[in-house]
């Protein structure tokens, strides 16, 4: 009996009878329910509060896990079905799997201390001799099993059930054993299509499909003559009987079935009426005599179950069939509503017939696509040596899966050989096939191809197409130089696809799985795709643009857009190719991350709209980090960032110092991650070149550039996604880059000099959807448009102007394409440290300015004429005038006294320039623009602030000097005397007027100081 508050294990809990039982027990509310099933899906909505274990009961470990803490076992799980499954071709498989499940469960039940074991047996245990053509009125009693000795049940399915009953009787001293023999249980929630359904569901499906199609002349298919007799018990009655049995002290075997039998033709007539068709007499029946039909007559004798349990079925066959038909009709409509008319017609045609299931042929088939060549090695024989090594690894790595019970696997190899490869296609036969057969591979198809040498992707396509036509479930590209290193990789692939389907709500088989390639860690090589992918693309695995490179990452990146790309732990070793040299000239598919990937994405989206419209595409965002310092602390912070579930992120680290001692540690820690790609430049190329390489490595719709020394907020990727989704037509987004509090004179001077103004421009102009530009320390850019815009390498390697140029060109392309400019993303926040650890270092600003001065000549539309020279130009003019005057004086007069006087005047002028700028900056920061000064993130005051203002003057002049030097070095003499509007005309004339005002005030003050100095 069941113990109140005890834990009950229902095996096959996602199936028909087990599912109904679990739902019933859950409704009672007196027990803890755990279900175990090999299938993750069920026709019935799973009951709430029920623990679910997914696994194969042929595995003792799964049984032990499922049995932990269980008081009672209700064992419904079985490899079974109607006559489409229970036939001689499947006998041995059924016996093996069902018996193994029960023995494993029994051992686990005894070990776990379970008290009760209920076993779902079958009416198939009864002798064939009692169910022949002359026994139309047979009524099978429980003891009739032994009327014929030795017993002769219906096939090995019935024999296994009978033998298991005998095994269970041996356990009666250790467990409370309850056994029921089911007679054709039917009802809502059972299998109704695919070959495993029983007669009631099959006839109802056919009748409903006939009505839906409107073509009554097609008739209804009947296996056999239709005179076979059966009794059918409705599921609700069966559940009531089971509950009564397990709650009783009855230790005898009982039949659970209806004792009213009908012919199969009569059952079909009832189905026709339930489907709402006209008089069955007007329906044409098509009798099929080459399909299994089972025994001639079977009916349950219910005398014992009535006597011991007081149970009798209450639901008439007509009522039960109508209720079942209503459920099947709804299930059918769920399928048909997603189909277009031609597909709907074809599906209804399929529903009109029943399938015979071959469990071995119905195994999960992996197609190994194997292009091979005898060329490219020292000796043609090496190809066969490599092939033998591959075949050995294939046999070893698939042995466990192939031998597994419960879920069946098979392997089929598709060889692709060049038609002129006379070594492999010799007069003595196909040498490659011979080698494979010697190593135990028997299912082989050879495709002789005529493609240019090295066109591996063409061979991949033709092999995949053949595998698709052969209805292979999964296809994966291999090579004769590949070695599979780990066992059970096929079941691992299947589980990975199942997990993606559950996690992301995508159809079964949707996605891409990649092996772990020991020769190219982190790179998604050797992808596995399901037949679903081939269906979406009409049998084409990859587009024609691919020659022999990039097909693997194409598939991985395609399904990444739905979060359905995954790298599994089973490893492969690729002796030739991968990241190293191949036996052919590598040809990349230029631009595949743009048009081809976008077109494929659109095709998948269109397919999903028809088959799973509720599935939404994720945003793809790549983080590009040009890295010179390779500071592991910063790297750990970057690579620990997490996105939201609706965004998929990849980290691309470009190491620009190939001599860094931290590269090996970085690789060892992160290179294995499929979401991390680490590339090392052969030499120091600079930040712009490294960002360009990051863009080339990326396949995402968007990239976010982060400097390698910033500290991002934990939510930076989430906020980036929010900004993108709010403005999907933007060219990009400018994030906020903050600095620590300026608590020293050196760091405060940097703020006061104005060189950090644009670092937090996103906060200053938070509502702007067309910001002038943003710093690349925290910049998001659209990447899915083939605009050919990269960072211009004319700018300095350490930076200076390249960010402005990049943003302007991206912005202009976007606007011309109907998009927007760069929007503010104030909540995308990083913190940048003070350069040189906060120590004084002005050279950086000089180099920056030297580079950004090129913008004046590049973008004349954003420049303006200075009313007077800037401070650096005045200083240079003073120095040049002084040196020139001294030279002229020496030539004309030759007297050094006059030269010294001229030099003194020049020095006075230069000193006056510096004093003027200091005084003016004190005036600006301390009085005129004191509100701006107060807004700066500084903690200084008093004399320290005064000294910081003085230092900021020198930083500003040094920057202006760098800009002037750059123009002269580039011979941009026409740019001298012109300034770049950092706001690119977006702030009106205000910034220009203020800057010219400052220059006029400085020059005026300079003249005044000189006049006073000389007058004094």
From TrEMBL:
Protein family membership: Belongs to the NAD(P)-dependent epimerase/dehydratase family.
A molecular function GO annotation: transferase activity
UniProt cross-references to SMART domains, sorted A to Z: PKS_KR (SM00822)
Domain of life: Eukaryota
Domain Ketoreductase: residue ranges: 6-149
SUPFAM superfamilies: NAD(P)-binding Rossmann-fold domains, Nucleotide-diphospho-sugar transferases
UniProt-recorded name of the protein: Glycosyltransferase family 2 protein
Organism expressing this protein natively: Daedalea quercina L-15889
A Pfam family matched in the record: Epimerase
Keywords: Membrane, NAD, Transferase, Transmembrane, Transmembrane helix
InterPro entries for the chain: Epimerase_deHydtase, Glyco_trans_2-like, KR_dom, NAD(P)-bd_dom_sf, Nucleotide-diphossugar_trans
Transmembrane regions listed in the UniProt entry: 874-892, 899-920, 940-958
Gene3D superfamilies: NAD(P)-binding Rossmann-like Domain (3.40.50.720), Spore Coat Polysaccharide Biosynthesis Protein SpsA, Chain A (3.90.550.10), UDP-galactose 4-epimerase, domain 1 (3.90.25.10)
């Amino acid at each position: 009996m069941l113990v109140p508050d005890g834990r009950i294990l229902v095996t096959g809990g996602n199936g028909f009878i087990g599912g109904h039982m679990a739902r019933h027990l859950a409704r009672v509310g007196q027990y803890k329910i755990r279900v175990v099933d090999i299938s993750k899906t069920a026709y019935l909505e799973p009951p709430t509060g029920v623990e679910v274990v997914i696994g194969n009961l042929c595995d003792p470990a799964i049984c032990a896990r499922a049995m932990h803490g269980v008081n009672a076992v209700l064992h419904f799980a079985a490899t079974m079905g109607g006559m489409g499954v229970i036939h001689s071709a499947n006998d041995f498989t059924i016996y093996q799997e069902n018996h193994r499940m029960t023995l494993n469960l029994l051992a686990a039940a005894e070990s776990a201390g379970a008290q009760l074991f209920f076993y779902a047996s079958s009416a198939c245990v009864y002798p064939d001799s009692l169910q022949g053509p002359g026994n139309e009125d047979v009524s099978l009693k429980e003891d009739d099993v032994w009327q014929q000795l030795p017993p002769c049940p219906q096939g090995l399915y019935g024999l296994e059930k009978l033998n298991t009953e005998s095994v269970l009787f041996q356990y009666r001293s250790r467990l409370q054993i309850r056994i029921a023999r089911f007679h054709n249980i039917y009802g809502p929630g059972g299998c109704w299509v695919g070959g495993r359904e029983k007669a009631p569901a099959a006839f109802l499906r056919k009748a409903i499909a006939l009505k839906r199609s409107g073509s009554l002349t097609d008739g209804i298919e009947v296996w056999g003559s239709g005179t076979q007799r059966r009794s059918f018990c409705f599921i609700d009655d069966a559940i009531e009987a089971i509950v009564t049995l397990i709650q009783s002290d009855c230790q005898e075997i009982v039949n659970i079935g209806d004792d009213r039998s009908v012919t199969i033709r009569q059952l079909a007539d009832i189905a026709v009426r339930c489907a709402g068709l006209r008089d069955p007499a007007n329906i044409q029946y098509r009798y099929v005599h080459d399909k299994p039909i089972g025994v001639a007559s079977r009916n349950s004798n219910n005398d014992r179950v009535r006597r011991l349990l007081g149970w009798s079925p209450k639901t008439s066959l007509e009522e039960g069939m109508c209720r079942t038909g209503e459920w099947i009709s709804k299930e059918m409509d769920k399928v048909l509503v997603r189909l277009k008319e031609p597909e709907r017609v074809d599906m209804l045609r399929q529903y009109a017939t029943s399938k015979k299931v071959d469990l071995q042929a119905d195994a999960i088939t992996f197609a190994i696509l194997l292009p091979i060549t005898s060329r490219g090695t020292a000796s043609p024989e090496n190809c066969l040596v490599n092939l033998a090594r591959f075949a050995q690894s294939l046999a070893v790595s698939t042995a466990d899966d192939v031998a597994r019970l419960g879920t069946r696997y098979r392997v089929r190899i598709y060889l692709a050989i060049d038609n002129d490869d006379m070594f492999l296609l010799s007069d003595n036969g196909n040498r490659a096939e011979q080698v494979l057969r010697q190593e135990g591979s028997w299912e082989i198809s050879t495709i002789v191809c005529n493609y240019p040498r090295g066109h591996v992707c063409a061979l991949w396509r033709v092999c995949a197409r053949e595998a698709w036509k052969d209805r292979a479930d999964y296809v994966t590209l291999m090579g004769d130089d590949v070695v599979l290193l780990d066992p059970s990789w096929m079941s691992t692939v299947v589980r990975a696809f199942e997990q993606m389907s559950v996690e992301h709500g995508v159809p079964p088989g949707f996605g891409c799985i990649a092996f772990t390639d020991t020769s190219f860690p982190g790179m998604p090589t050797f992808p596995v795709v399901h037949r679903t992918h081939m269906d979406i693309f009409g049998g084409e695995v990859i587009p024609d643009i691919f020659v022999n490179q990039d097909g693997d990452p194409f598939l991985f990146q395609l399904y990444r857009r739905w979060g359905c790309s995954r790298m599994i732990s089973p490893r492969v070793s690729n002796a030739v190719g991968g990241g190293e040299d191949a036996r052919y000239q590598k040809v990349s598919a230029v631009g595949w991350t743009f048009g081809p990937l976008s077109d494929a994405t659109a095709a998948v989206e269109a397919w999903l709209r028809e088959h799973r419209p509720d599935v939404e595409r994720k945003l793809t965002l790549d983080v590009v980090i040009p890295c010179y310092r390779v500071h592991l602390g910063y790297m750990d912070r970057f690579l620990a960032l997490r996105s939201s579930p609706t965004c998929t992120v990849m980290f691309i680290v470009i190491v620009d110092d190939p001599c860094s001692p931290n590269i090996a540690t970085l690789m060892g820690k992160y290179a294995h991650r499929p979401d991390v790609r680490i590339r090392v430049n052969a030499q120091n190329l600079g930040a712009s070149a490294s960002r360009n390489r990051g863009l080339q490595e990326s396949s995402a719709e968007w990239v976010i550039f982060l400097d390698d020394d910033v500290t991002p907020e934990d939510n930076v990727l989430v906020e980036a996604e929010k900004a993108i989704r709010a403005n999907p037509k933007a060219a990009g987004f400018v994030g906020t880059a903050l600095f620590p509090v300026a608590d020293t004179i050196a760091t405060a001077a940097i703020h006061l000099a104005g060189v950090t103004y644009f670092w937090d421009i996103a906060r200053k102009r938070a509502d702007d959807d067309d910001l002038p530009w943003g710093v690349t320390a925290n910049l998001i850019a659209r990447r899915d448009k083939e605009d050919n815009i990269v960072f211009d390498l004319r700018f300095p390697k350490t930076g200076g102007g390249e960010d402005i140029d990049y943003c302007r060109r991206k912005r202009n392309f976007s606007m011309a394409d109907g998009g927007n400019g760069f929007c503010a993303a104030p909540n995308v926040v990083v913190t940048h440290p003070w350069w040189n650890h906060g120590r004084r270092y002005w050279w950086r600003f000089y180099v920056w300015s030297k580079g950004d001065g090129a913008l004046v000549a590049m973008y004349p539309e954003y420049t303006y004429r200075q009313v007077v020279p800037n401070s650096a130009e005045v200083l240079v003019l003073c120095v040049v005038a002084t040196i020139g005057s001294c030279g002229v004086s020496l030539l004309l007069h030759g007297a050094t006294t006059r030269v010294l006087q001229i030099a003194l005047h020049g020095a006075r002028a230069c000193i006056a320039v510096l004093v003027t700028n200091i005084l003016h900056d004190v005036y600006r920061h301390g009085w005129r623009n004191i509100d701006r000064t107060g807004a700066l993130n500084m903690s200084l005051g008093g004399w320290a602030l005064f000294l910081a203002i003085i230092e900021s003057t020198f930083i500003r002049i040094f920057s202006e000097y760098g800009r002037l030097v750059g123009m002269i070095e580039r011979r941009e003499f026409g740019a001298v005397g012109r300034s770049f509007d950092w706001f690119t005309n977006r702030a009106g004339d205000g910034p220009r007027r203020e800057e010219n005002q400052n220059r006029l005030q400085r020059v005026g003050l300079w003249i005044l100081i000189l006049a006073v100095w000389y007058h004094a």
